[in-house]
Specification:
Bound molecules: iron/sulfur cluster
Number of strands: 4
Strand content: 15-25%
Structural class: mainly beta
Helix content: under 10%
Order of helices and strands: EEEE
Pfam families: DUF1540
Radius of gyration: 13 Å
Shape: elongated
Protein name: DUF1540 domain-containing protein
Number of helices: 0
Oligomer: single chain
Strand order of the largest sheet: 1-2
Distance between the termini: 32 Å
């Protein structure tokens, strides 16, 4: 399925209240996501039936 247009606030604000335990991600700050936006996609399937079949596409490893 085609990726939908990303909605950006334009204000440079962080996406509010996304708790994320992936502390090895570049965008993680104090177990919260600090990215201006994130994209979540299917993971290995075309139709997810549980959260394990979703993934954060915005993940970037810490340098
Ligand atoms: S970009 Fe994704 S993996 Fe990285 S901190 Fe945000 S929600 Fe977590």
């Amino acid at each position: 399925m085609e990726t939908e247009k990303l909605n950006q606030t334009g204000g440079g604000d962080s996406v509010p209240d996304i708790k994320c335990n992936v502390v090895e991600c570049h965008y993680n700050k104090n177990i919260m996501c600090n990215a201006p936006m994130i994209q979540v996609d299917h993971s290995g399937v075309s139709r997810s039936t549980n959260s394990e079949q979703t993934k954060c596409e915005t993940f970037k490893p810490k340098a």
